Amino acid sequence: MPLRGTAVPTALALALVAGCAPPPSSGDNVVAAAPRRPAVAPASKVPVQKISYPATGSGTYAAAPKEFAGPRSGGEVLRYRVLVEQEINGIAVGEFAETVRSTLADPRGWTAGGDRSFRRVGRGAQADFTIYLVTPGTRDDLCQDDANGYTSCRNGEAVVINVARWVKGVPRYAPGLETYRQYVINHEVGHRLGYGHQLCPGKGEPAPVMQQQTLGMHGCKPHSWPYRDDELYTGAAGQYNDSAPPREGAAQP
Ligand SMILES: [Zn+2]
């Protein structure tokens, strides 16, 4: 989203600079080539969408619209809603919903077995579950667990993604934020499908998606999908005794 429409052909950018046109004020990346300035990597000039959110939001939500009801791969159709808490700024509900949709529809995702598919419905429609993107405080309200403000969760028909993890991911998750986001969607939706926590199968192996990868890898490598090589990829049932790091803004112990 933030990159849309900002690409300027290099030749044009150079021509603008060579012609001493004033640097555009709109944040276009042509300023990277401005003279009399130290060289700056162009990437650092790409406008970054500012994301902000309070510790606890109001518990009111923007809803993603229903998706086009096209053909599905088959099996049971699970209907879900996508809600984003109002006070989360800089993440459009449609952008979040599209990441959810593409993750759920991925050939490595929960539809790979052919026995289920997903369809997003609108705010007022009957749904099998709801995927929320919420502030840490609202996460505690919806999860009704240990109120750690750090993790995401699934509680009944609520799949609750903590915006703090959505934006920051977790430390030492080498493949990066995109992979972590896929992981957290697949993990929490996996709970809604009835799967419990699983353990790392062995040092250096990919982690099962139902391992609590937010809290620790335990020798496994980050892995964000339920299926590998068209097979459901699992570990032994169980979970580690990891505790969640402090929530944002909390005093360090
Ligand atoms: Zn879990």
| N-to-C order of helices and strands | HEEHEEHEEHHEE
Q: Could you list the spans in which at least 5 consecutive residues all have pLDDT below 50?
A: 1-35
* Rough outline: globular
CATH architecture of the domain at 61-192: 3-Layer(aba) Sandwich
CATH class of the domain at 61-192: Alpha Beta
CA-to-CA gap between the ends? 38 Å
Do you know the CATH topology of the domain at 61-192? Collagenase (Catalytic Domain)
Overall description:
There is one protein chain. The protein is of the alpha/beta class. Among the domains are: 10-45, no CATH class; 61-192, Collagenase (Catalytic Domain) (3-Layer(aba) Sandwich), CATH 3.40.390. Helices cover 21% and strands 14% of the residues. The protein has helices at 10-18, 93-105, 136-143, 163-168, 177-192, and strands spanning 61-63, 76-85, 116-120, 129-134, 153-155, 158-162, 227-228, 231-232. Strands 1, 2, 3, 4, 5 and 6 form a six-stranded mixed sheet that branches. A hairpin with a 2-residue loop joins strand 7 (227-228) and strand 8 (231-232). Helix 2 packs across helix 5 (177-192). The protein is globular and about 40 Å long. Mean pLDDT is 85; it is low at 1-35. The protein binds zinc ion (ZN). Zinc ion (ZN) binds next to helix 5. The site of zinc ion has 4 residues, from helix 5.
